Every structure is written in structure tokens, then in C-alpha cells.
Amino acid sequence: MTWPRWHWLNDGLIPLLVVTLRVCWLWPWLELLRYWLASSAPRPLVPLWAIFGLFILSISATRLALTRTASLRQARAWVIAAGLVAVLGLLWWQYAAAQYPLWDTRWLRLVTHALSDWLYEVPPAFLTLVAATVIWLRGVVDGQRPMLRDAVWGAFTTGAIALALLLLAGHYTPAGLPAHTERWVLAFFIVGLAALALSSLQLARAVGRWGSQKQSQVRLNRYWLLSVAIVILLMMGVGLLLGALITPGAVAQALSWVGVVLGWLATIVGYVFLAVTYVIFLILTPLIEWIRGQMMQRPPAREEPIGIMDWQERLRELSRQPGTPIPPEAIESLRWLWLLALLIAIGVAIAIALRLMQFGDSEGEDETRESVFSGALLQDQLAALWQGWMQRLRRPAQTEPDPYLSLAGEEANRRTIRGLYQTLLSLAGARGLARTPPQTPRNYARTLAAEFPADEQDWQTLTEAYMEARYAGQPPTAQQVEQARQAWSRLSPHLTPPDEARTHSARHAEDRKNAIDETEQTDSPGTTGRRGQDDP
Question: Is residue 152 part of a domain?
């Protein structure tokens, strides 16, 4: 068993910065919710260390489950089990650790009582349960795929909106904002700018590799880090200086000047509106008078009085009748039924969220890349989705879906190299060396090179050719295609199983290679397909 190489920037530092971004706005919001909904709670709903821990544990558990399990169902089961243990452990620590040790099951009854105590306010234990569940699911989503620049931008934008709403809510709260909110805001922008800088470096290295044939790449060194740190500190310093110089009085004076201009504009708009409405009613007045005259000529219809039940007298009669008190057992049963309904609702929400999630499904397409929100690409995606649905309806029940992206209409050199790589994926999967969803092609090449160290250069050659064919702006050259063919001719004997133990996946790989060869003979070399159709 080989462990994939751990990349400290992509798999360590950037996810940690994204987690810190979310903590910077989530912690003040939890404190504000505690003041609104559970003011009697003596301590925070979720400790600060627990927020970090839940995020890191959920991301790590998701990536390990996707890497070390054989199917998507097993990965989901492991993630749900780990989340259940983490949330229950947090509830024990918050509400039962002082009375019972963890191995004493009586703490479960104490926690359930805390969850169902809805007498005067929302139970703090229930808020802790909801917050911990949301944090865990957020980490599961983050752990499905690498943290790229789009994920960092999404976390930064969400946090900025959340902090803006927090400042607005704190303005209308009698107690004001939670303590040290300004420190969290400052930390959010410092961490956010650092995460954006590192993700931009990550993107620049990838674009520099795929967009040109130059071997020089942007490197992460101390000079780059020092420059980024100085720029971030200067921006924060300028912001704090402007905040100290621009006093509320100066802002009020500037707004008063703007108010004068807006007042004149409002006056002009009002006069224009008055003139327009005067002309309209001058035209409509005769019509209104005629309709009124027609209505006055008809005698008013006699309305019968509606009999209304004297509810007050009815309530007095009911109050005089001897009542039957509700037994305490019924009240206790309703309390537990309410708690059960809440837990079922949370469970259904978790199940739906996990069902909608795609853990880089190994049963689906193996070649994917992130899309951009352009009109043409969205139209192509909708058209491809509709065509896929229609093909599924017309396809016989026994036909297995193709796990790889279609190569129809692709440029000839791209189609050849990608067809070789898809054959590699199929044959390697048949040998028990399937590519896991979190693995990048380069990491997968290192895994294969560890199994067959004598051909390390050939694995690298074929992988680099695939990266060029898949992501580069220009199609590969004929020389790159020939190098990929030669590398595959030396690698294929390692992956081809014996004739007596040949599996269905291996036969599928051979059929696929034959189909690709036939397509190369029939398609013209100059045909260029729309790559947006190929990518979800």
C-alpha cells in the first residue's frame, strides 16, 4: 500500500487558512445567537477550539474516506459515523463532562434532557447540536475536492457578507456586538488576503505550466512571502489609519453635503411627478364622474345581518365546566416526541445533504475540471445534460454507462493522448490500482511509479502529455503524441492482465482502445471539437 505524497500548500496551509476564515465570522455569530436565543447559557455554544477541531476533523475524515474506501457508499458511512462520534463527544464535553465520565452512559440521558428543555428559551444544547452539525457538513463539502482559488474566493465572499450582516445586527441589538468583534474582523481580512495570495500563486504556477512550454515557474520562497506579508500589513495599517482619521463627525458632515444634493434632486423629481399625475387625472376625471353617476342611480342592495356566534359567552360556559387536567405522563411523552421529531429532522437534513454531495464519484466521470459561469458554457452544459437524459431513456437496461468523458468531436492529437490515458485508467483499475477521486494526475503518476519504479520516466511522460491535452490552450504537437505512444507501449505490458484472469474492466479497456483507433482513422485531423461540451 502506497500513501500519496502530502502537499503542504494545497493540502495543508490553504485549507487551514480557509478554516480560519470561516471561524473569524462564525464565532461572533454564535455569540450573538447565544445572546438572542439562549441568554442563560453561561459559556459559548461551541468552544473556539471545537470549531477548529470540527472543521479539520471533517475535512480529514472525508479525504481519508474517499482515499481508503472502495465505494462511495462506504465513504459516506465512514463520514457519517465519524461526524456522529464528534458531535456526541462535543455534547458530552459541553453539558455532561462535569457530572459523568464518557464511559458512563447516564450522560446520554442528561444530554437528551438538555436538548428537550424548551420551557423558557431555545435549549443551548440544541443550538450546539445544530451548529456542530452545520460545521461538520461544511467540512465534508470542503474535503471532497482540493482547495483551489474558487473555493478561497467563495469562503472570503461568504465571510465578508456574514460580517456585514453581523455589524448590521449588532447595531440593532441592545447589548451591541460581541466582545472583540473588531479583532475578528481584522483577523478575517489578514487571513483572507494571505489565502487569496497563496491560491493566486497556486493558479499562476498551473497556468504558467499549461499555457507555455517554459520550464520556469513561480516559486514559493522567502522573498515572495516577505513581499506579500508587507503588502498585507501596509493595507491593514492604511485601513486602521483611515478609520482613526475619518471620525464620525466628518462622515456626518460629508453625508449632510450629499443630503443637500439629494434633497434638490428629490424636489425636481417630485415636481415632474406632480405634473405627470395632473395631466393623467385631467384626462380621467370625466370617466370617473360618469362611473360614479351610474353607480348612484342604482338603489343599494339590502344586506342581511350575519349571525355571529358569541364566542366570549361560549368561552365563559366552557370555563364553568369542570376540566380534566393533563397528566404529567402525557406532558413528558410530548416532550420526548418533540425531541425525537427534531432529531429526525436533523437526520433527514444530513441524509439529503450527503445524498446531493458528489465525493468525486468513482462511478461517474473520471476526467473533470471546474466550470466557469459563462452563458455559452452553461448552455452547452444544459444541452449535454438534456442529451444525457435522453440517451439514458433510450439506452437498454443492461448497458453499462461509460465512466469516461466522450472523445467525439475532439481534436485529433488531444483525442489520441486522452484515449491512451483513459485506457491506462481502465487497465490500472482492473489491476487494483484505480485512481482515487482526490488524486491529481501527477500524484497518481507517482503512485504508479512507486509500483513500477523502473518506468518512472514513462509514467511522467504520459501524464504530462495528458495534462497538455486536457488543459492547455493549444493542442499537443505530433512529437508529444509520438512520445506518449512510445511511453504507453512500454507501460501497457505491466497493466495487461493474463488471458485467464482477464476482468471485465480490462476487456472494456481493450474495446475502448480499438474504438479510439477506429475514430482516429475516420475523423479528419483538422476537426476541432467544443471542449466545453466535454467538461461538466
Answer: yes
CA distances to 45, 107, 139, 200 from 38, in Å:
9, 22, 26, 42
CA dihedral 427, 428, 432, 437 (to 10 degrees): -120
* Dist. CA 195–CA 191, nearest whole Å: 6
Question: What is the C-alpha separation between 53 and 521, in angstroms, rounded?
Answer: 56
Amino acid at 146: P
Q: Tens digits of per-residue pLDDT, 66-123?
A: 888 878 888 888 988 899 899 999 999 999 998 999 899 899 888 888 887 777 788 8
Model pTM above 0.85: no
DSSP, collapsed to helix, strand or coil, labels residue 257 as helix
Q: How many domains are contained in the chain? A: 3
Check whether residue 138 and residue 150 sit in a common domain. yes
DSSP 180: T
Regarding whether 162 and 284 lie in a shared domain, the answer is no
Structural domain that includes position 433:
375-534
Q: 118 with 338: CB under 8 angstroms?
A: yes
Residue 443 and residue 4 in contact, taking contact as beta carbons nearer than 8 Å: yes
Residue 398 lies in a domain: yes
Q: Are 55 and 23 in contact, with CB atoms under 8 Å apart?
A: yes
